[in-house]
Every structure is written in structure tokens, then in C-alpha cells.
Amino acid sequence: MIRELNRSFINFYLKIATGIMAVIVVNIFFSFTLTDNLFHDYFEKHAEEEVFSALSGLDFGISVLLEKEDFNSIQRMVENIGAYSFIETIRVYDLHDRILSSNNKDEINKKLELTIVDKVIDQNKLQSISSNFEKKVFEVAVPIKGERYSSVSKNDIVGVIFVRANVESYERILLRNRNLFIKKYIASGILLLLSIFFLLINQFFMPIIKLFNAVVEVSDGDYKHEIKHNSHGEFSYLIQKFNSMIKQINIRDLELKKIKRKLEEQNDVLEKRVKERTRKIKVTQDITIRSLASLAEIRDNETGAHIQRTKDYVKVLAEDLREHPRFSHYLNEKNIELIVNSAPLHDIGKVGIPDSILMKPGKLTEEEFEKMKKHTTYGRDAIARTEKTMGTNSFLRFAKEIAYSHHEKWDGSGYPEGLSGEDIPVSARLMTIADVYDALMSKRHYKDALPHKEVVKIITEGDGRSMPEHFDPDVLESFKRVHQKFEEIFLKFSQ
User: Fold this and answer.
1) Which residues have CB under 8 Å from 1's CB, separation 6+?
2) 5, 126, 151, 164: which one has the fewest Cβ atoms less than 10 Å from its Cβ?
3) What is the pLDDT averaged over residues 324-331?
4) What is the reported pTM?
């Protein structure tokens, strides 16, 4: 967000700066064009004025000298006028186009016809001008004594003064003046541009930059930031309001931090209470499980060791399967702990089986086996009664599943309900293979113990006492991977 804001600000600044520069450049361009046009107009007008100023009174003086036929004085006057830098040629003609006097002495007494001179003589003109400043031409012819009269007749003219101006020389002088003017104009334009930029930066952009930097600081959490500013200016009110807003935000931020600290303190207290409560609940669960499981141990010491081993078997299987796609959603850390802690209660229902059946050294009769199978129902009912006393609880739910269904088989040949496949709870499927393994490995008064290798073969391949189809295929595969750990557990708790 800050980068976007920064980029937008820079674009905004550049647009304004570019716009101002464009306006000034266009203004200078049009000013140059206008100045150039004015210069040419001024040049032509000023050139005419200069020439006529030089000729002012000359016709009268020459007319007097002509009457006296004082040609030497006329020549001096012509040479004096011709000495001006902007005068290229000056001649005095008689009425027959003969040159009486010239700043070029070689022309004197020569006949040189010029249209402009003839116009003054033949057409009785007060003056004749031929100008084309683009071709560097400016010529003037005035009658001698002609400007003295409101009307001129042919008999009044005694001669003609002809002047050709040195346009290039005069133009160079004016060009220097124009270039000097342009340089001053450009310097003034640059000074104006700098003044405008300075004014904009000081009065417009600097306050915006300050506001922008303040927004960045505040967005980063610095609620103590304050914009320093002059008491006057277009942005003064906005900056004052911004500073006031930041102060209010800072006050509220401090209040929120105080509230946050209080909430954190209260949360810490609550967490400690929850942890303590959880610890007590867990202790209660463990005591409940051990108390119930101890009922089975009272009937048969070997059953106590069996309970501990099967608990660890289930834990090994559950941890191996927790990443399996079929079980990952079910075998999370919490559920594994609850299933493992509930495992010792799988044979709790045997407390309801008579000693004559439970401790019988030989094979059970069909009737006795039917009674033995009821230990799954006794276990479920005992846990259900406990659940009513303690309230519904997850670990007791898993305990009921295991106690009631750990003799169910994947192919549906188990008891008490003959469940099959996915209908059998996952917790009971884990206990089924753990219970069969420990039963085959253990010596009982009615059977001898089998070696680990043989037990693994019976479970994975089958021999009548157990068949592979009795187990969930994925649980059976897990057993094949971890059976070595089963043996380690058995040896650890066989004494």
C-alpha cells in the first residue's frame, strides 16, 4: 500500500511539474514568435525613421547651394551623410538623371537612370520609397525643395536626392539588440520558472510531502508523529487537523494497549486454570481407567501384564497409521492419546465371567464360550454406567467402542454383532490385532506360548486360529511394518 501511495504521489508531482513547464515553454515559444514579428516591424519602421532623420533639412540646404552652384559644399554635405554606417549610397541628381554629387566620387557627372528617381521627377511625387527588407533593399528618393510645398509642380523640382540604406549593417545592430532582449527574456523566464517551482515546493509540495511522510510513519505504528508547520499557509488547517487526529489515535492506542495487557493477564490466568483443570481431568481419567482395569487384574495377574502390552501395541499401530489417507483425519494426536488410554479397558467385561469359565485349564464348551463372549457386552455396559455418573466424555466413548467391538472381525465372522469392514470402529480394529498377537505370544493355563516369528506368520498368513481376513488390510500392513516393536514390548512386560 505504501509503495502504491508513494508511486501515486510521484506521478502527481511529475504531472504538475510537467504541466507548468509545458505552459512556460509554450508561452516562451509564442513570445518568441510575437517578438520576432514585432522586431521585423520595428526594424522596417526604425530604418525608415533613421534614413528620413538623416535627410531632414538636407533638401533645403542643397537647394540653396544649387542656386549658388556651390557643388563643393554639396559634396561635403553628401559625404557627411554618407559617413553614417546605415547609409550605403547617397546621390544628388539633376533633372536629367546626371549625378551632381555622391559619396562615391567616381559616380560624379555620370548619368545613371533609376526608376525611383524618375518617379519623383516625372510623377511629381513628394517622395518615392522602394523597400524589400527580406532582400536587404531599402531605397528612398526625395525631391529637392519638394517637401517644402503642399503641392509640387515639375518646375519646382531642381533635383533629386537618392539614398540606398545599408540594411545588413543596420540589421546587425538590431539583431544584437534583439538577441540581448531574447537572452534577458529567457533569463527572466528561467527566473520565473524557478520562482514558481520554489513557490509550489514551499507552499504546496512540501506540506504534501510532510503529510505523505506522516501517513507512512503512522501506518508503521508511530502514533506519536507530529507534523511541524508554520502557522500560515493553505495546508495549515489540514495539518493541524491531521496532528489532532494522530493525537487522538495515540490516546486510543495507549488505551487499547492497556486493555490488551489486561486481557493478556486475564488470558494467562485463564490458561493456567484451564491447564490445571485439564490436568485434573486427565488425572481423573487415568485413575478411572486404572481403577476399572484393576478389576481385571484381581481376577488374573497375567491379565494385568496383557493390559499394559496391548496398550503399547495399539499406540505403535496408531502412530504408524496416522499419516495414512484412510486414517489421518481420525488418528490425530488427541484421538491417539484417548484411544491408547482407553485400551486397558478392553477386557473389563471379564469381571462378569465366572471363575469356572475364566480360569478353566482346558478348552471351553460351546455353552461356556457363549458366556465368555458376553464379556464384551458386560464391558460396554459397565463403562456406560460409569459414563452416566461422570457425564459424556470422549475417552469413555473410545473405551466403550474397544470393550464392545475388539472381537469383531473384518470379514464379519466376529462377535458380539458380527460387524464387518468399515462398520467396525477404528479403535476396535487396532485392538483386535493387538489382542490376537498377545494371546498367541502368551502362555496360559490352557495353552503354551508361541515364538514371535510363528505368531507373525499365523497373523499374516493364517492357520485356522487366526486368518488375515480377520483384520483391516491396512492395519495388517501396518503390523507387518512394526511387528518387531511388538516383540520388544512383549519382552519388556513379560516378566
Assistant:
1) 219
2) 151
3) 95
4) 0.48
